[in-house]
Amino acid sequence: ALGRPVPQIWYFEVTGTFDTGMYQYDDGFAVMEMTTAQRFAGLDSAVTGIQIRVRDAWRAPVVGQRLEHRLGYPFRSFDWQSQNQSLFSALQLEKLAMGLIICFVMIVAAFNIIGTLTMVVSEKTKEIGILQAMGFTPTGIGRVFLTQGAIIGGLGTILGLIGGLILSYALDASGLIKIDPAVYFIDHLPVHVELLDIMAVVVFSFLVAVVATLHPSRAAARLTPVEAIRHE
Fold this sequence. Notes:
This protein has 232 residues and is mainly alpha-helical. The chain contains 11 helices and no strands. The protein has helices at residues 23-28, 34-41, 60-71, 80-83, 85-123, 125-133, 138-174, 181-184, 195-212, 214-222, 225-230. Helix 5 packs parallel to helix 9 (195-212) and helix 7 runs antiparallel to helix 9. The longest helix has 39 residues, at 85-123. The chain starts with 22 loop residues before the first helix and ends with a helix.
């Protein structure tokens, strides 16, 4: 009968540790001399793979396909996007959900602006009548409230943008929000500011604020001088 194979024990001296922030690398990778690693894995002078770093990370799939086509079988390429496809799909879904939440927040803010300006029109009805009696046209009255709503929306957008950027950079620098690295491969929530996303949110927020002022502005413009002055 053949005897059971006896495992060979290797002893290595740990000279240091590294922390990449990526759980899958920190948990299962070790760095050692290539010849030692080849003898340990029984590869002789061969290697199991070569990792390539490209200048533009988003072109990794294209570069990988070109290398695979040039080298031919049995060589294969795996880019970082295909290796983490499930994670990127989850993040894309979360980004969509976050966009919907931001959209609903803007709509709620728009109703607040409508309510505020409607109350202002109701409280300032007599003053509106006096302005009309002094020569203000209905269009001019409407522009006054439209400007007021635009100023409210603009100030709110600017303050929200400044506060959001400060909070984003603070969270990214401190790593305050911890997440499970076994699930997300990283131990804290990174925050990356996208210029196009910021511009889209700012423009949409301001447009919502301006559109929200149209109804109160028209209501103020419809008032007649006599009815407005007599209003109590």
